[in-house]
Here is the input.
Amino acid sequence: MNGPTLLIVEDEEPARRALADYLERRGYEVYPASTAHEAIRLWDAHRADAVLLDLGLPDLDGVDVIRRIRREATTPIIILSARGDERDKIAGLEAGADDYLTKPFAMDELNARIRAVLRRAGGAGADPAGCLRLGPIELDATRREVRVAGGLVRLTPREYELLKVMLSNQGRVLTKARLLRAVWGLAYAGESAYLHVYVNRLRRKLSAAAPTGSLEGLIETEPGIGYRVADHESRSLRTEPRLES
Amino acid sequence: MIAPTPLGTSIESMHIALAGRRLPDMARTTRVIASIAGALLAASVAIALLASLGVTHAAPVYLLAVVAIGMRWGTLPAVATSVAAFLAYDFLFVQPLYTFTINSPEEWLNLLLLLAVAVAIGRLVAIQADHAEQVAQRAREAQALFGISRALAETRTVEEAAPMVLERLAAATAMDRIWFGLGPTPADEKTIADTAPREPLPIAAWQVVLQRSPGDEPARWARMHLATAMVRRKTGRATVHRVRVEASGETLGSVWALRARDEREPNRAETRILSAAADQLGQAVVRDRADQERTMAEIARRSEALKTALLDSVSHDLRTPLATIRAAAGSMLDESVAWTAADRREAFQAIDAEAERMGRLVRNLLDLSRIEGGALQPELEPCDLDDLVQQVVKRLRATTNKNVHVDLPDSLPPVLADQLYLSQVLANLIENGIRHGGDTINVTARQLKDGPVEVTVEDDGAGVPRAALPHLFEKFYQAGPPGEGKRRGMGIGMTVVEGLTRAMRGEVSAGRSDLGGLRVNVRLQPAFVPEEAAVPDPRGDRAEAEAGLPGTATR
Here is the structure.
């Protein structure tokens, strides 16, 4: 098999088997693990292209697995977790995970997310000239300019920074704390009201400049977590999210 | 035990006790004698002055001295003053002067009259003073007891009231430390409150227990020697007083009072206050227990009823989708039937939809248990209604062919909410509309004059009978006949809506929609959002020029 390799860490046997079966049929090479230790062993042996990780493992905290992997690689990690575990999800994302899916999820949604993180890991986003693109949005980092569908959009420095962080993380979920740290600095990590103001304004300005008057789906609120930045391809490929997502 | 002081009266010792300090008896006697001597000297000088002015029979001036002593020191000193005045007058002003000899019988009569009047006045004055002091003392006592009753009445539990009660007790008695323990025996007691909570409980040489007898007989203190020589060395003369807290013959605990410096028995006033406080605490403990038992019984009763309703509801609502899933999966597994691709697709769609439905029920059950368990910890932050409503509606539109209209004004301020909870509230309301409504569900919002933002979800279905509206948010309430026609909900969706909304400091109400169906209003607080100027932008001006043009706020 030549497809991308996936490390699947899930302690529930039926769920692990269903995931493995589905993803193997989709052309991935799968390494299933049922404990954190097994996951780390498989990770050391195979260095998969992406990791699907259930946070509730019998032996170690899933977040420890994320830290362990992040010490060595930027391999995309998608958290699989039950609803109501928002704290765990945030901890996982803060530790370096790229995305999360709330159980129960639909398989096609999982597939779309895996493809998105693999694309990002493949270096999608910035072109050699230092331009970040997402849909009609184009951010030129050398000239500090933002254009939507070719037209210049006036942004304040803070809005520009925010957009830049978001466009640099396409296909990922960014926690509120992470965005605040990246744009405002460490001292503002708890000031989610600032973020709210700025994201809203950014959305308004960008939407107003778009030919359709809308940028629906490019910057999505992930309730309780933060924001998800779409990537161009995933937006067109993505099926409707399930009710439970 | 202390010996009664020679001049002491009960009033006297009460006074000292309440003042919180106790003078040694010798010092007191000296002071009494000094004040008698002073009063007599002053009176004698006054009489001498009057005599030099030609006033002959000025002996009644001594009566003033008697009155003063009687008011200040009581009966016995007043009588002593009378006798001394008698002698002084005889000695100083009766011929022959400076002897105690009296010549004329007339002088004898005068002097005896002076003595008799002085004794009578002294006694009257002292009784008067006694009485006034007693009234004041009773007033203080009553005030202390009133304070204790109030502390017990205004609090919900004895634990809450106890510190205040002890504070009152400490103020009204000359005790160095008071604490209150609950338990059948001193060894089992758990200290509920203590006026010196950080210090270890003392080991005293003596324990004095108040023996209370039924009826009006005064209570007595019975001394028990507890101490070993070692303890005695450690604590000196400290005495611990114990007043049992009892109710209907059962010992519930004790009020303990420590007097560190002397071994004087608590006086009558202190005893009265301590024993009244112990009685009140006892009543309060009994009241607490009764409350607790009632609450437990009520909880047991309710949870029994809830369990039954929950089981009914869960078994029905989870079985229905399960039945569909098993039927569809079973069909697909049956190899004797040649299913077309369309058949298979339909079966799998049914499985998917029913699994989703079960997921929703489980999610609501989970929320319900959190609401019931008081485990909700909303993270309130500014939320864009438009954003959340669109997200929820987008998800739900995929599951229905009904029309979900959204009409939110642009001018809506952000609301203070937990994004997850608000999503759930909106989803439950819209799902409810989809399940019970006609063809149309409307989602609108407006800002009310006084600030809150009201989100309205309404449908054009059959609605809910007016009489049923008040029960809409009750757990397991089903509008309309159960189990008939359309699929039943679990009856907890609306309860979850209410619970989550309340957790976000909002309100929810239901009424009849102009569309004909049910209308539910969710009222939320508007969020305070910092002015743009107030949001720090320290990298400011330099970058502004590079990033584009200044003055970009386009609100």
Notes: The mean pLDDT of chain B is 78. Chain B has four domains: 10-145, 158-163+173-294, 298-370, 376-532.
